[in-house]
Write a structure and sequence with these properties.
- The complex is a heterodimer of chains A (385) and B (138).
- Chain A has 385 residues and is of the alpha/beta class.
- Chain A is globular.
- Helices cover 38% and strands 20% of the residues of chain A.
- Chain A starts with a strand and ends in an 18-residue tail after the last helix.
- Chain A has a five-stranded mixed β-sheet, with helices on both faces. Chain A has a five-stranded mixed β-sheet with strand order 10-9-8-11-12, with helices on both faces. A two-stranded antiparallel ribbon of chain A has the order 1-2.
- With 138 residues, chain B is α/β, with parallel strands linked by helices.
- Chain B has a seven-stranded mixed β-sheet with strand order 1-7-6-2-5-4-3.
- The longest helix of chain B is centred in the first third of the chain and has 12 residues.
- Chain B is globular.
- The chains are: A alpha/beta (385), B alpha/beta (138).
Chain lengths: 385, 138
């Protein structure tokens, strides 16, 4: 039987220690860093089988507005405030657990929107103080970073590629809480450029799955798109130029015939983001998607391999919303296999923003003897390292 | 109105404008994808003395850059679908705050932009050239 020593003195003057049965640690985590409210409850069973997600609830803003009658909240973060109690109810109900059975409370403390972070943090802190249980402030990016290790026995030092709509990072992880940022995007995030290019091509939102589906039937060598910063000598990324390059291609009569341009459908609604559409020639769109996706993946792969070589690392992990892209997963898996490198990627359901990854990061932190003070403040610019 | 011939020059235009910026100023940026809006904000942050990395806030909705003469609130309306969402991220609290607010895709919710805002329009003139109108009317 393993035991864990947890300090629960955050809100009392004197430190006290409790011994917590390791097999029964149950964590409730709240994620409110951006425009989605999420609550998850996770219970650690034992090291072999990994933790159980007892509940993982995500409510988008849109759903909330429908539910609450479309009232326009005048104050920031009213959405989170309005839905959080409902989500907490739903999570505890579906987990069949009472609030007093929770051993620790966690919340995302950054990076994100200040007012939104405050709601989740204050709620988790309040619950922790009320129940006399530990509180853990979790970095949203650490949630992504650790998600590939969900259900695994131990954390190996690794190079981690985090690719989402808001972030693109290469991180060197030595252990829990010991991270070094090796590279990041200097302009657009990888997920963002997928969405923006999808919109340029008149595809649906979110752009990632739409582009991947079209790319399957396209020729990735048809259009020569830039692999930005491949020779920059550092591990940073830039995707803004790629987006612009696709835009120029669409203006070329050789790519999109003039006749097709003339037949573009009328805009239904005025939208500043719309650009002139062309009649959808499937093969051109498929080829553009395939060529674009290939360009993004080439850069992500090359920079990841470079990071692995520079640091002599033997493990690559992939997380964040864009890691749902199977072409990216397969590409990285293939290059890792070729080079004798272990490749770990989070399950798709853990890749997008959720509270389960925050709960998992909190569990690993607790197990490492780390926790936060309830006086710790949120930080909209919270850095990973 | 001037023509920028490179990303570096667009950044330079932002840095130049930063000298005249004061607390409470609002810059409303308008222009297509790839027209140089984020690049301009990079220059603005540099000109105000912030060393923080400036990246697109399309998904994160708002970035704050500190460490300079004034705090910068970098908004992006691209992904915001309605006014409700705009209030939800605290736009009104920030835009009348103590720093300088810069808003990409400001024309998507032009009514929400305060009247004292300065509108800056970016146009793609050619593959390498951008037309930047520093005192656009809308």
């Amino acid at each position: 039987m393993r035991f864990l020593v947890i300090r629960i003195s955050s809100f009392t003057r004197h430190s006290s220690f409790v011994i917590c049965d390791f097999l029964l640690v149950t964590i409730l985590a709240i994620e409110t860093s951006c425009d989605e409210t999420a609550v998850a409850i996770l219970r650690d069973r034992n090291r072999e089988s990994g933790p159980d997600i007892l509940a993982s609830e995500v409510a988008s803003q849109i759903a909330a507005h429908e539910k609450f009658g479309g009232v326009v909240p005048e104050l920031a973060s009213r959405n989170h405030l309005a839905q959080l109690p409902h989500l907490l109810d739903r999570a505890t109900t579906s987990a069949k657990i009472a609030m007093n059975e929770i051993d620790a409370f966690a919340a995302t403390s950054g990076p994100g929107l200040a007012s939104s972070l405050l709601v989740g943090n204050s709620t988790a802190k309040g619950l922790a103080i009320g129940a006399g249980k530990p509180f853990l402030a979790i970095n949203h990016l650490e949630g992504h970073l650790l998600s590939p290790f969900f259900g695994r026995e131990k954390i190996a030092p690794n190079i981690s590629l985090i690719v989402s709509g808001g972030h693109t990072l290469l991180v060197k992880m030595r252990g829990i809480g010991d991270y070094e940022i090796l590279g990041r995007t200097v302009d657009d995030a990888a997920g963002e450029v997928f969405d923006k290019v999808a919109r340029l091509l008149g595809l649906s939102y979110p752009g990632g799955p739409a582009i991947e589906a079209r790319a399957k039937n396209g020729n990735p060598k048809k259009f020569d798109l830039p692999r930005s910063m491949l020779n920059s000598g550092d591990l940073n990324f830039s995707f803004s130029g790629l987006k612009t390059a696709v835009r120029y291609l669409l203006q070329k009569p050789s790519v999109v015939p003039k006749r097709a341009n003339a037949e573009r459908p009328r805009k239904r609604k005025e939208d500043a983001r719309e650009i002139p559409r062309f009649t959808r020639d499937d093969s051109v769109v498929n080829d553009l998607c395939a060529s674009f996706q290939r360009a993004v993946i080439d850069v992500l792969r090359e920079k990841s391999i470079r990071a692995l070589r520079q640091t002599n690392s033997r493990t690559l992990t992939l997380s964040g919303g864009v890691s749902c892209n199977y072409t990216l997963r397969e590409d990285l898996l293939a290059i890792c296999e070729k080079n004798g490198i272990e490749f770990l990627v989070a399950e798709p359901w853990l890749c997008t923003d959720n509270a389960a990854m925050i709960a998992f990061a909190a569990l690993l932190r607790l197990q490492s003897g780390l926790q936060s003070e309830v006086t710790d403040e949120i930080d909209p610019n919270l850095a990973l390292a | 109105m001037f023509i920028s011939v490179s990303a570096a020059e667009t950044e330079g235009a932002g840095a130049h404008l930063a000298e005249k910026i004061k607390a409470g100023d609002v810059l409303a940026l308008v222009g297509d994808l790839g027209a140089g809006k984020t690049q301009f904000v990079k220059g603005l942050a540099r000109g105000l003395g912030s060393k923080e990395a400036v990246t697109s806030p399309t998904f994160t909705l708002l970035h704050e850059y500190r460490g300079g003469r004034l705090p910068i609130y970098h908004f992006d309306f691209y992904r915001i679908e309605n006014l409700t969402a705009l209030w939800a991220i605290g736009f009104d609290e920030t835009v009348f705050g103590d720093g300088v607010s810069v808003i990409e895709w400001a024309d998507r919710f032009g009514d929400a932009i305060p009247p004292h805002a300065r509108w800056i329009r970016f146009e793609i003139a050619s593959e390498s050239q951008r037309r930047i109108d520093l005192s656009a009317l809308t």
